[in-house]
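Example for tutorial group B:
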C-alpha cells in the first residue's frame, strides 16, 4: 500500500497525523511532497518512517490513494506535474471545495473522490463530506468510507451543496471558536474570572451541548426550552442574544457563497485557460 499526500499545510498535516494516530495508516506507507521543505522535515521527525518525496510526481507514482491537500489555485500546476504519472486504477482525493470532480476527471486518467475534512477530525470528531467521482467502484467507496470513519463521521452530500455543508462542517469550528472567544472574553472582563477556568467551562459546555443534541436527540429549540426556566435568567439573556445576533448566520452564508462563486470562476479559468475564457 502506498498513500501519497501533496501539500503538507494545515489539512495535509492534520490528516496524516489523524490517520497515523488512529492506526488507519502506517507512516512507512505514506509519502509526502510539499512546497516548503521545512514542513516535510518536521513531519518526518514527528512520524518516523514517513517518506519525503523529491517531487509531487514521485508522491503520485504508484500511490493507491493520492490526497491533494493544496489550495484551489495551486491545482493547475500540480495536476500538470502529476497527470502523466497517474494510471486508471489509482484514486485521487481532493479536499478542496471549489475544484469540481468533473474538472479533475477531465484532467486526470484516474478515479477521483472529493472529501472535505474538518479541522476537528484531528481529535476523531466532526464530519467528513463525501462526494463520489463517476469512476469509483462500490468497493472503492466502501474502502474510503471505512478509512475516514477512523477519524470522523463520513456524510455523503451532493456536490451542489458542498458550500453550505463545508460552512457548517469545516468553517463552523472557526465560527464557533469566534463566538466562544466572545463569551470567554465577556466572562473574564466582567467578573475577573481566570481565562483558563472560563475557557474550560466554555469548552466542556460546547462538547456537552453537541452530544446532548445528537444523543437524546433534541433540536436546538428543545434544548433552549430545557435550559430556560420560565421567567428565569436564561430566558432573559436569550432575548438579548436573539436581538443582537438575528440574521448573523444568513450574512455569514451569503458571504461564503459569494466568495465561493468567485472562487469557482477563478479555478475554472486557471484549470482551463484557453478553452473556457
Ligand atoms: N483549513 C481547513 O480547515 C480546511 C481546508 N480545506 C481545504 O484544504 C485545502 C488546503 O487547505 P490548508 O491545508 O488549510 O492550506 P495550507 O496553505 O495550510 O496548505 C496548503 C499546502 O499546499 C502546499 N503547496 C502549495 N503549492 C504547492 C505545490 N505546487 N506543490 C506542493 N505543495 C504545494 C503549501 O506549501 P507552503 O507550505 O509552501 O505554502 C501548503 O503546505 C484548501 O483547498 C482548503 O480549502 C478543507 C477543509 C477544511
Ligand atoms: O477557509 C477556507 O477557505 C477553507 C474551506 C473550509 C475551511 N477552510
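The residue assignment follows.
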Amino acid at each position: 500500500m502506498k498513500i501519497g499526500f501533496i501539500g503538507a499545510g494545515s489539512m495535509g498535516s492534520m490528516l496524516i497525523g489523524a490517520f497515523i494516530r488512529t492506526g488507519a495508516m502506517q507512516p512507512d506507507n505514506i509519502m509526502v511532497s510539499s512546497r516548503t521543505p521545512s514542513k516535510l522535515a518536521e513531519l518526518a521527525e514527528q512520524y518516523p518512517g514517513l517518506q519525503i518525496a523529491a517531487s509531487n510526481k514521485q508522491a503520485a507514482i504508484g500511490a493507491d490513494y493520492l490526497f491533494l491537500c493544496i489550495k484551489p489555485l495551486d491545482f493547475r500546476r500540480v495536476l500538470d506535474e502529476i497527470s502523466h504519472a497517474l494510471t486508471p486504477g489509482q484514486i485521487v482525493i481532493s479536499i478542496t471545495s471549489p475544484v469540481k470532480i468533473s474538472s479533475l476527471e477531465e484532467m486526470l486518467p484516474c478515479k477521483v473522490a472529493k472529501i472535505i475534512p474538518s479541522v476537528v477530525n484531528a481529535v476523531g470528531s466532526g464530519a467528513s463530506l463525501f462526494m463520489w467521482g463517476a469512476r469509483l467502484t462500490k468497493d472503492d467507496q466502501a474502502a474510503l468510507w471505512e478509512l475516514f470513519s477512523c477519524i470522523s463521521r463520513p456524510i455523503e452530500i451532493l456536490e451542489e451543496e458542498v458550500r453550505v455543508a463545508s460552512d457548517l462542517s469545516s468553517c463552523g469550528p472557526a465560527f464557533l471558536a469566534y463566538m466562544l472567544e466572545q463569551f470567554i472574553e465577556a466572562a473574564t472582563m466582567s467578573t475577573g474570572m481566570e481565562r483558563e477556568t472560563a475557557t474550560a467551562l466554555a469548552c466542556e459546555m460546547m462538547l456537552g451541548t453537541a452530544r446532548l443534541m445528537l444523543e437524546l436527540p433534541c433540536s436546538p429549540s428543545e434544548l433552549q426550552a430545557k435550559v430556560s426556566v420560565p421567567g428565569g435568567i436564561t430566558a432573559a439573556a436569550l432575548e438579548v442574544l436573539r436581538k443582537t445576533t438575528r440574521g448573523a448566520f444568513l450574512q455569514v452564508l451569503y458571504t461564503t457563497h459569494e466568495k465561493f462563486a468567485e472562487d469557482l470562476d477563478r479555478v475554472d479559468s486557471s484549470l482551463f485557460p484557453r478553452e473556457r475564457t
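The radius of gyration is 21 Å. Compare this with the pattern of hydrophobic and polar residues in the output above.
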